[in-house]
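Hi all, posting the design record for the shared folder.

TITLE: backbone redesign
STEP: 1 of 1
STRUCTURE INPUT:
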């Protein structure tokens, strides 16, 4: 999953792809580099981020999604917590809602997901982006995060959302200390209780900087090591900034660990097929 932030203030690439033409060109480049999914976001969720209006988010994201839908068959995702944004983006051709609040920020989001039969990536976050890094606390971070995500899956299914296209994300860096992040990454298997694919996004994040002492632009090596560790630990969707390098890392890891390769490749292919059918179902293409 390639990250495409159409924002002026994202932590790693804020402002870099704020222009529609630049954003679309970069999305196409990521597909050519091997991305299966392009995740487009119009509101930063970095620590301390300020919320923007749904109208502003729609203005930023929908034109990019429409153009990408015309020019690529890649699966398209919207990174949003707002049902109004999700609805417009799904109409424009996206197939996945990537919600950092696990569909709790906006009560209508579950209805939109059910209506469109959309894929849903649900992430754990303690607090909100503005305050999430203000002294996050857990008694047992692995048990609490995995238990929370299992409950969210069960609640959404009870609400009428199809279980099949759901996926779960432990939310690395979202209301977690360095120690919390490391514990979650070392115990990804705990999320198996959700019985859904595991998504991990750790690309360029601050915990890598704390480990390596590197600035955000110098965290590629750390990101790739973390990515391979997560893949071998059970992650099936890898959310990254550096697509070309990440694809190479996955290919090498699969070649060196052939027992794991069929499961990773097979699940990825199944996911692509399912989300393509979802897009056709909702009339987007």
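Okay, here is what came back for every position:
SEQUENCE:
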């Amino acid at each position: 999953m390639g990250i495409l932030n159409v924002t002026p203030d994202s932590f790693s690439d804020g402002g870099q792809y704020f222009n529609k033409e630049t954003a679309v060109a970069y999305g196409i480049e990521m597909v050519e580099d091997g991305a299966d999914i392009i995740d487009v976001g119009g509101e930063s969720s970095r620590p301390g981020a300020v919320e923007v209006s749904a109208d502003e988010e729609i203005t930023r994201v929908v034109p990019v999604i429409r153009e990408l839908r015309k020019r690529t068959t890649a699966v398209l995702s919207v990174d949003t917590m707002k049902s109004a944004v999700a609805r417009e983006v799904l109409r424009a051709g996206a197939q996945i809602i990537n919600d950092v609040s696990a569909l709790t920020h906006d009560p209508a989001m579950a209805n939109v997901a059910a209506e469109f039969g959309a894929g849903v990536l649900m992430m754990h976050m303690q607090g909100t982006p503005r305050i999430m890094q203000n002294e996050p606390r857990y008694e047992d971070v692995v048990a609490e995060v995995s238990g929370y995500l299992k409950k969210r899956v069960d609640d959404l299914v009870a609400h009428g959302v199809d279980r099949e296209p759901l996926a779960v994300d432990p939310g690395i860096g979202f209301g977690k200390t360095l120690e919390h992040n490391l514990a979650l990454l070392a115990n990804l298997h705990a999320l198996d209780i959700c019985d859904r694919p595991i998504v991990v996004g750790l690309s360029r994040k601050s915990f890598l900087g704390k480990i390596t002492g590197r600035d955000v632009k110098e965290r590629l090596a750390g990101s790739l090591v973390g990515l391979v560790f997560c893949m071998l630990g059970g992650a099936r969707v890898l959310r990254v900034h550096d697509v070309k390098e990440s694809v190479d890392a996955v290919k090498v890891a699969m070649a060196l660990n052939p027992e794991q390769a069929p499961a990773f490749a097979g699940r990825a292919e199944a996911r692509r097929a399912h989300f393509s059918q979802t897009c056709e179902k909702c009339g987007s293409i």
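COMMENT: The chain is about 45% helix and 10% strand.
Let me know if anyone wants the other runs.
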